[in-house]
Backbone:
């Protein structure tokens, strides 16, 4: 019997579903509006559309899920009443936070309220010092009194964060044992389990966030699993972690804070999977939607991982203004550049775009729904990038005249006509994204010219070629089914699980035997879950070490040779560290001692080895398109240029820019000096052939 | 230059300098850089005019550092510089006003021409001398003075200078590690600028520099012109020395689109290390003006040049050699609040009540169990002043931007552990909007007897005033084993001693109803 996998991605606006035929690679997709009051409803509607017609419910052998619900619960403060227990003397840590402004000039700046209010933060006498010495025993009587008081005030979930527990967790563990006796149903999150890292504020913030969303996560996941079972889908259910790993229901419910970035992670994994199918190892994954653009790097077919994250920023896109969350996530940057981003002229007489967005309500001026501010989408229309008759599949009646008159108004204040202003907005939003990507690539010590640019999201393909050109990238890829990239990524991504163990020793004092014991423990833990996910296959293991010069505050993660640690392999660690260090910081410090802070390992097993195919409807294939002019800044000509229907393009042919390619969920805009082809899978490949005015010199 | 090209290049320059600052943070060694962010990174044009600064920069250094670059240029004119050179100094007057701040600058050449400087200042974890307190009477007591020298010449490090530096500090590996982080950051910035020049086919940065500065100058001029003409004065008393307060006076004059500040009437310089060098006075003045009048535009030289600052020579805000200045922040951090107090008369909605600053700091010199010297410094903040539309934030660095060190990092790196760190509820001044609260931090000393401890602490007698009828915040306090101690002197610790710092609250805004 043919078997299938079901991917479900719940985003802020849409719930995307993909069913993948595991034998043939054929996919079928559905897009539903997210039903915020009860997210499961949107999922069921989507499942009803594709499961049944396309495959039988009992043919689904695996369900993989990602969601932004928990992130949104933090942003909208819709979590439960969570209580917090700290070491005596530290109940204000969340409120004192870092004592530092994220904007030095803004005297009116505001900081986020702690997730746990004053009256639900309580202290317990206990103290273990940095060296492990028990300075004060855990006061169990006082613990009980404080927990009683919290429960009496309605606490639904409890977080515990004791000083130095990242290294010495015995008091946290003992507290949980006792609380389980007193209140067996009260969920308890321990800081050393959620985030075993030095720094009490960040660790406390992380464990508080975990408790804050934990009951929601538990109910929601249970509800979804039951709803799917009622539809006859009894397959194992997995959730995507922020770092791209997969996990089972049990771990997802215990550490929901690790799921915060699961949706965006799935999108980047989708890029990595397509890269693997296409033989492209280094990608800049670029996703541009209505409000934001997200940018991530994929190297050697693996997304980069970051070890901290900030949730619910007080000021959008201002780093430092949110709640710090110590989790490993696929490293991506998010900037306020989307189709709805609003253009304005600032006090210096400069044209600026975003981060304010018109969103979907009122939306761009051209939607005719009351939007008064010129947006990126308006400018895309004015320039001819988008086809007013076929925007969002023809579902919105576009008022281009209104967009133009707003552009005239804005342009006149800086001496530009409507066309000039529109091109300015287009070019600036592209530069904003290019600048963000450039910083991101540079931060990894990489050369942007070695990356292909992988574009998804509704607005991504409209701007991708121009952004890539600014960056100096040589190739742009627009995959098939770019509109549901994240949901597809859930199914294509290998099952991966990461584990970490603290070491905290000088490199020259490492004992291989001791290290191998630690490696064995984390590897068997990771491998066992992966083996449950992909039955019958032995996962591949990769090993890493976090290293730093002694007394530095940040680690560099270094890939280690496969297999157990020996004196011989240990001898290569310094070189591996220094070569990575040189890459990032330009020079090494000869003679400084090196410290190994953690070891890491992951187990990984491919879930799908084939290639995917998208079936396109006959209606879409026979839809006619008309050539039209495109702004000279992009096309180099005032004549009409070629417009193609993507579904009629086949491999073996090439087309030269300038041209515009229309498809159901997006439009690909290709300027001059570019060559376009379709590969055998149906992905569009744009090669930037010449050096264009603003491209990097060789 | 057309507005779109300008915007593109400007954004790119900021991203280059931000990238440099991120690398600096990640490769630094001391808690003062990585936890407290006591450093800044900027790019100037070829003549030392600031072009862009890292978003995470300190109000003080972004004002002083361009002046330092210009001072370097006086000592080492352009024709004496070559690619791979790195200049260094910690001069009190041409640097930041005190010796622990080490400034470095790298000239950036493109196609054989000097086009820019990448520069950085960072607070070193130690600079030798007496552990920092207001006690030193002359600069010679305050540690190593590094003249304007080339740390690198054509990419080669000066080993003599390096040896001198290592020999004179308590923690040579940390000091050298942070300095390496600074210099490699400058190299990363150079790479970024080179690729920008190539990509946009630029020959130099003259036009960009001119555009950035004139736009900033014009924006500031417009903002100044919107403020009614007149002279607005304020006066503030600081705790000063143990026996005598210090008076600060300012007159802010707005005339058309120009602003001038005059500190005439402020106290004379003193034989204690709280003298605030002119460079720091200027920097704090420019910061206050920008906060009040043009907070939204990326900072550059254009926001400094139009502001004229007069401070009488030999006064506490413009001392002369050989005055000491290690604790100059104890005067300098009053300046923005003083200026705001003056401006409150005319633009009350754009200023803050005084904050519970200057910043508080603990300095500790001790020996570890093997008898090796250790130096630690940890910062803590009081409450921020209230504004016209919101309460002051509790425990928030202002006007500085120095983060507190995590208690667990203190426990790990110093012979101290934090017993408690809590908000002193109600310590902010009352008002329509309340001042932010200060905090109490208690430490227990666990090292060997005989360690020296000293502090930066102010507003233990003079509270942060409110404005527009708001009440002052609580004063701060400093205790060892429960007894108030002289905040301006060094103290010797024995094992088990308990030190408590209580930072002041911020002032309130408007009458409480």
Residues:
């Amino acid at each position: 019997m043919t078997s299938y996998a079901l991917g479900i991605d719940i985003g802020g606006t849409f719930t995307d579903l993909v069913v993948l035929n595991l034998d043939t690679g054929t996919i079928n997709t559905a897009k539903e509006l997210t039903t915020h009051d009860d997210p499961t409803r949107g999922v069921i509607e989507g499942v009803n559309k594709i499961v049944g017609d396309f495959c039988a419910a009992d043919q689904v052998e695996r369900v993989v899920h990602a969601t932004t619900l928990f992130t949104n619960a933090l942003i909208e403060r819709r979590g439960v009443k969570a209580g917090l227990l700290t070491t005596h003397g530290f109940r204000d840590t969340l409120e004192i936070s870092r004592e530092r402004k994220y904007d030095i000039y803004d005297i009116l700046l505001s900081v986020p309220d702690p997730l746990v209010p004053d009256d639900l933060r309580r202290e317990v006498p206990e103290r273990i010092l940095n060296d492990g010495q028990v300075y004060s025993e855990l006061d169990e009587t006082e613990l009980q009194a404080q927990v009683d008081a919290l429960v009496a005030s309605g606490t639904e979930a409890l977080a515990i964060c004791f000083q130095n527990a990242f290294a010495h967790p015995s008091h946290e563990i003992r507290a949980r044992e006792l609380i389980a006796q007193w209140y067996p149903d009260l969920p308890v999150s321990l800081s050393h389990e959620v985030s075993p890292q030095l720094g009490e504020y960040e660790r406390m913030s992380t464990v508080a966030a975990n408790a804050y969303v934990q009951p929601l996560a538990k109910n929601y996941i249970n509800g979804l699993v039951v709803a799917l079972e009622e539809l006859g889908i009894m397959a194992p259910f997995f959730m995507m972690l922020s770092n791209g790993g997969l996990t089972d229901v049990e771990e997802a419910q215990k550490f929901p804070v690790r799921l915060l970035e699961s949706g965006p992670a799935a999108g980047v994994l989708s890029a990595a999977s397509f890269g693997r199918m296409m033989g492209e190892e280094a990608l800049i994954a670029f996703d541009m939607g209505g409000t934001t653009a997200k940018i991530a790097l994929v190297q050697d077919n693996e997304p980069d991982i970051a070890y901290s994250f900030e949730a619910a920023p007080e000021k959008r896109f201002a780093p430092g203004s949110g709640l710090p969350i110590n989790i490993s996530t696929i490293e991506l940057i998010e900037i306020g550049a989307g189709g709805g981003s609003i253009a304005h002229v600032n006090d210096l007489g400069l044209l600026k775009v975003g981060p304010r967005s018109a969103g979907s309500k009122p939306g761009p001026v051209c939607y005719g729904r009351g939007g008064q501010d010129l947006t990126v989408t308006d400018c895309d229309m004015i320039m001819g990038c988008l086809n007013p008759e076929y925007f969002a599949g023809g579902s919105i009646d576009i008022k281009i005249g209104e967009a133009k008159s707003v552009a005239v108004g804005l342009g006149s204040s800086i001496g530009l006509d409507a066309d000039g202003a529109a091109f300015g907005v287009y070019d600036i939003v592209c530069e904003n994204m290019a600048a963000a990507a450039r910083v991101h690539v540079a931060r990894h010590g990489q050369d942007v010219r070695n990356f292909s640019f992988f574009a998804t999201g509704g607005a991504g393909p409209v701007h991708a070629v121009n952004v890539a050109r600014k960056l100096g990238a040589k190739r742009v890829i627009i995959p098939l089914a770019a509109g549901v990239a994240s949901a597809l990524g859930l199914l294509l991504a290998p099952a991966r699980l990461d584990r970490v163990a603290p070491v905290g020793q000088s490199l020259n004092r490492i004992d291989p035997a001791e290290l191998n014991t630690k490696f064995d423990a984390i590897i068997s833990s990771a491998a066992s879950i992966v083996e449950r996910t992909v039955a019958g296959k032995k996962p591949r293991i990769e090993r890493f070490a976090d290293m730093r010069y002694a007394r530095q505050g940040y680690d560099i993660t270094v890939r280690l040779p496969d297999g157990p640690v020996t004196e011989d392999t240990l001898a290569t660690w310094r070189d591996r560290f220094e070569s990575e260090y040189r890459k990032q910081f330009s020079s090494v410090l000869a003679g400084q001692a090196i410290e190994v802070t953690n070891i890491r390992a992951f187990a990984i097993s491919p879930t799908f080895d084939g290639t995917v195919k998208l079936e396109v409807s006959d209606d879409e294939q026979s839809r006619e398109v008309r050539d039209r002019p495109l702004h000279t800044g992009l096309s180099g000509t005032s004549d009409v240029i070629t417009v193609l229907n993507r579904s009629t393009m086949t491999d073996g042919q090439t087309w030269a820019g300038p041209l515009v390619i229309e498809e159901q969920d997006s439009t690909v805009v290709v300027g001059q000096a570019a060559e376009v082809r379709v590969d055998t899978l149906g992905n569009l490949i744009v090669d930037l052939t010449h050096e264009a005015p603003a491209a990097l010199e060789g | 230059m057309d507005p779109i090209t300008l915007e593109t290049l400007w954004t790119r320059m900021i991203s280059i300098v931000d990238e440099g600052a991120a690398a600096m943070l990640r490769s630094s060694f001391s808690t003062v850089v990585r936890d407290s962010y006591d450093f800044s990174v900027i790019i100037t044009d070829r003549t030392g005019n600031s072009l862009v600064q890292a978003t995470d920069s300190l109000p003080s250094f972004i004002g002083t550092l361009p002046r330092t670059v210009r001072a370097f240029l006086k000592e080492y004119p352009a024709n004496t510089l070559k690619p791979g050179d790195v200049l260094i100094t910690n001069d009190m007057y041409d640097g930041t006003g005190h010796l622990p701040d080490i400034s470095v600058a790298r000239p950036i050449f493109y196609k054989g021409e000097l086009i820019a400087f990448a520069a950085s200042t960072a607070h070193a974890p130690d600079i030798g001398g007496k552990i920092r307190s207001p006690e030193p009477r002359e600069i010679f007591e305050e540690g190593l003075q590094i003249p304007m020298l080339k740390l690198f010449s054509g990419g080669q490090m000066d080993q003599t200078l390096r040896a001198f530096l290592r020999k004179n500090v308590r923690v040579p590996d940390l000091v050298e590690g942070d300095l390496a982080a600074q210099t490699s950051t400058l190299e990363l910035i150079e790479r970024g600028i080179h690729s920008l020049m190539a990509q946009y086919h630029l020959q130099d940065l003259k036009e960009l520099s001119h555009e950035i500065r004139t736009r900033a100058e014009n924006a500031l001029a417009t903002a100044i012109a919107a403020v009614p003409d007149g002279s607005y004065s304020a006066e503030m008393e600081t705790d000063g020395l143990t026996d005598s307060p210090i008076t600060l006076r300012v007159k802010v004059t707005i005339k058309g689109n120009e602003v001038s500040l005059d500190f005439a009437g402020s106290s004379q310089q003193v034989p204690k290390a709280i003298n605030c060098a002119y460079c720091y006075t200027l920097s704090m003045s420019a910061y206050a003006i920008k906060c009040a009048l043009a907070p939204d535009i990326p900072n550059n030289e254009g926001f400094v040049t139009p502001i004229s600052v007069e401070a009488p020579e030999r006064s506490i805000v413009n001392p002369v050699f050989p005055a000491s200045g290690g604790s100059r922040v104890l005067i300098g951090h009053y300046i923005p609040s003083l200026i705001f107090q003056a401006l409150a008369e005319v633009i009350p909605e754009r200023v803050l009540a005084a904050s519970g600053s200057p910043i508080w700091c603990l300095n500790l010199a001790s020996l570890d169990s093997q008898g090796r010297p250790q130096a630690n410094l940890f910062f803590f903040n009081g409450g921020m002043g209230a504004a016209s539309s919101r309460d002051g934030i509790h425990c928030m660095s202002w006007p500085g931007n120095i983060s507190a060190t995590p208690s667990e990092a203190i426990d790990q790196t110093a012979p101290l552990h934090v017993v408690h760190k809590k908000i002193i509820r109600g310590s902010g001044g009352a008002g329509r909007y309340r001042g932010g609260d200060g905090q109490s931090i208690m430490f227990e000393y666990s090292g060997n007897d005989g360690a020296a401890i000293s502090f930066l602490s102010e507003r233990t007698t003079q509270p942060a005033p409110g404005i527009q009828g708001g009440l002052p915040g609580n004063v701060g306090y400093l205790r060892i084993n429960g007894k108030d101690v002289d905040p301006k002197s060094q103290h010797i610790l024995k094992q088990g001693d308990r030190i408590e710092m209580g930072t002041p609250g911020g002032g309130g805004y408007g009458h409480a109803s």
About this structure: Residues 200-230 of chain A form the longest helix (31 residues). Chain A touches chain B through 70 residues (CB under 8 Å). The two ends of chain A are 54 Å apart (CA to CA). Residues 692-698 of chain A have pLDDT under 50 and may be disordered.
